[in-house]
Amino acid sequence: MKHILFAYFLLISIGGFCQQNALKSKQEKAKKIDLIIEKYHQFDLFNGSALIVQNGEIILQKNYGQADKNWNIDATSDTKFRIGSVTKQFTGMLIMQLKQEGKIKLDDKISDYLPWISKTIGNKITIHQLLTHTSGLPNYTDFPDFKTKMVFENLSPKEFAVKYFKDNLGFEPGTKQNYCNTGYYLLGLIIEEITGKPYEEVLKKKIFDVIGMKNTGIENPKEIISNYAQGYDFDYDGYQKTDYINMKTAVFSAGAMYSTANDMKKWDDALYTNILLNEENKKIYFTPHTGNYAYGLNIQKNQNFLGSGKDITTMAHSGGINGFSCNIARIPEDKIYIILLDNTRAGKRGGQLEAIIDNIFGVLYNHKVDLPKPLIIFEVYKKMKATSVEEGIVYLKDLRKNKFDSYNFNGFENELNRLTYKFLGDKKIEDALKIIDYAISEFPNSSNLYDTRGEVYFTKKDYNASKKDYQKTVELNPNNDNAKEMLLKIEKEIEKEIEKEIEK
Questions:
Q1: Under CATH, domain 411-503 is a member of which superfamily?
Q2: In what order do the strands lie in the sheet with 217-218?
Q3: Helix (H, G, I), strand (E, B), or coil: what is residue 402?
Q4: Which architecture characterizes domain 81-364 according to CATH?
Q5: What are phi and psi of 78, to 5 degrees?
Q6: Running DSSP on this structure, what letter comes out for residue 163?
Q7: Domain boundaries, the chain
Q8: Tally of CB atoms within 10 A around 435
Q9: Per-residue model confidence as pLDDT tens digits over 157-169
Q10: 49 phi, psi to nearest 5 deg
Q11: Which parts of the sequence belong to the Beta-lactamase-related domain (predicted)?
Q12: pTM of structure
């Protein structure tokens, strides 16, 4: 009997010791992650809500900064943020639920549900191709009029699509992948056509109400949403309120949702159950295709992830829309979930939310993680403002050569592009040109940079130089519809100049 009691108490002691170690490990991880995110916050690279889960347990749930800077209102885990393209996994889920109910097939053509769409594309593109960005449709948010006209429209989603969506294809459906908001917008219209109800009502009934997401919905400009974060843009001189956009019309099922950290955890929890989809259809939902894209998630298989000896699957997606950035990542093998909700469009500053997630993964898998560094472009802008753009570029070259390890060069190409637009917006065209010239010298094969320089030259009314850059843009990226439309505009401007010369 004594031996039995001894073994019993020994097991209790060992169990208690293991629990203490697990708790200590959890606390240490939380402390490290908190330190990392706090540094990103200090460097103006994150502001908002963070929630990190491992083994189904919350490791860290904390908020950094303010939901509304004007009113000094701090962010909380129930503050509502726009989540942008993270909406796509919800749209994909609704399509899969309709498939499960026998109301749609993934190889159906979109013209089967949208009779008003041009037959030249409607009879070619399948539902599956819309879901996987392989439809070949042009991405409507890249259209030149999107930021200046389309975002202000107050039409129904169907009226918006009829007015703006084109019947041309960038490539034959199914042959390539090109990220396309147009496809997910059309999926929302298909959901409405099948159910006979507005997209937001279907979301609420089939997902939000089922799993208890009470603080999630589709933003409507005619409604006041309580506990809603104010969106900001950081333009090197500080934070400014973001520009207006009619989310319900201009973004719709491609990215018009808002949610909270707490609600997004409920969504992740539900994905481990059969409450929304059965096992057969969940397998389809999570199957990656071209470009590792599933139905609203980027999915990758990783061997010996971060030296852990484990083969794991990462599922992730980012979301970005006026004033907001959102990133989610999950690892089902270890029930890991990371949600970052930001109201300063931090995702545009060098893809920083992905960098935060990489650091968090490092902590969770006991991998070496370095503390974040300040973004190099902020330091360079201060120099440019204090002296000149020329001296700022010289200073930048020196820092890259001699102090590279002291700064964050993530998204360097994108940051140079943004800085160009900062000076162009301030009507300092020559300075903008110097910056974009330097950027192209560093990234000579970037179609996006040539597109930007083409815009700078167009603003300067140097149409021949603009034409040359837009031609280079199309050469590097044949799917760039903005460049194609700008080339047409340039030809008209050149014709006007020729007519003026003839009149003289």
A1: Tetratricopeptide repeat domain (1.25.40.10)
A2: 81-82, 257-259, 217-218
A3: helix
A4: 3-Layer(aba) Sandwich (3.40)
A5: -110, 10
A6: H
A7: 81-364, 411-503
A8: 28
A9: 999 999 999 888 9
A10: -105, 140
A11: 48-347
A12: 0.87
